[in-house]
Design goal:
310 residues, alpha/beta, Rossmann fold, N-(1-d-carboxylethyl)-l-norvaline Dehydrogenase, domain 2, 2 domains, eight-stranded mixed beta sheet, four-stranded mixed beta sheet, binds pantoate
Length: 310
């Protein structure tokens, strides 16, 4: 299968490396020519789950170099989706599939603006990957990947099984999921609670549950997101506090992706996470004061970078 993985961040580098090692014809697609030139020669440096180090010579290319692909996987940060989606008509073979494995809402809509919903798949990845540096990643924790057809998609169950098999052959835990939209919201609930607070306080995920005031805010943000999901007709069940506690415990030493972005001075995914809850809440008449506050604080964190006294 000819595969394009769009976005050489932690997850993108990991998937492209594991598919390459499994013998697939895979391309890691980047938009920066100088980075392509550098990593074409260097490959991806992977520290695997078992702790061994491998250099994997995965083809690192620009979008115009792949030729038509049977499967295109989006792994760029949510704020880059709009620009990256413009390459989809060129990357996708006739009848090809495109799968988003990104955090946050609105990625599917942005992809559909370019190619329609019919050939789109959505997925949620619970595995832990840390990007140490450009092209250097650590596969930090195992975890399942769920893939399914979102509303509007016409991808058949047999085609979804084909994609799941591809991930399994590459050594990843992967399953088809019949209600992927619910799972996207369940992951969002976790992200809107953990990501902004760990980034603002600069603490690992496990510390959040030990800070009573911050924990209260995290639970309130997740509960607001659940109320918005339900108002949108998406049955996200279960207690948000329990869900948050499970993830904070399972990923205790992890630096959340938003904390990693803040520490590296990169833009965060706040617009695709808490800001989406606020916007959708407004449309549906659901109050979201905590998500609004967290959105404003994380936006201010970025804007205040050059103004700080220390
Ligand atoms: O974005 C993240 O960092 C992850 O989705 C999660 C689950 C919060 C773990 O760090």
């Amino acid at each position: 299968m000819r595969i394009a993985v769009v976005g050489p961040g932690g997850l993108g580098c990991l998937l492209a490396s594991l598919f390459f090692e499994a013998g697939e014809k895979v391309f890691l697609v980047d938009y920066r020519p100088e980075r392509v030139a550098l990593f074409k020669a260097k490959g991806v440096h992977l520290k695997s789950l078992t702790g061994d180090h491998r250099i994997i010579p995965v083809p690192w290319v620009l979008a115009e170099e792949t030729g038509p692909c049977h499967l295109t996987i989006m792994t760029v940060k949510a704020h880059q989706t709009e620009a990256a989606a413009r390459a989809l008509p060129r990357l996708m073979a006739a009848g090809g599939l495109a799968l988003t494995l990104q955090n946050g809402l609105a990625n599917l809509e942005l992809m559909a603006q370019e190619v329609g919903f019919e050939r789109l798949l959505a997925g949620v990845a619970f595995l832990g990957v840390t990007r140490r540096d450009e092209g250097r990643i650590i596969h930090a924790g195992p975890g399942p990947i769920y893939i399914g057809a979102p509303p509007g998609s016409q991808v058949s169950p047999a085609e979804i099984s084909g994609v799941v098999d591809l991930f399994s052959r590459a050594g990843l835990e992967c399953q088809a999921h019949p209600h992927i939209q619910v799972l996207l919201w369940e992951k969002l609930l976790v992200n809107v609670g953990i990501n902004p607070l760990t980034a603002l306080l600069r603490v690992p995920n496990g510390a959040l549950a030990k800070l009573p005031e911050a924990w209260e805010l995290a639970v309130a943000a997740a509960a607001e997101a659940q109320a918005v999901a339900r108002a949108a007709g998406i049955e996200v069940t279960g207690d948000p506090q329990t869900r948050l506690r499970q993830v904070c415990t399972a990923t205790a030493p992890n630096h959340s992706s938003m904390l990693q972005d803040v520490l590296a001075g990169r833009p965060t995914e706040i617009e695709a996470l808490n800001a989406q809850v606020v916007n959708r809440g407004k449309t549906l008449g659901v109050p979201t004061p905590v998500n609004s506050l967290l959105t404003q604080l994380v936006r201010s964190l970025a804007r205040s970078a050059g103004l700080r006294v220390v």
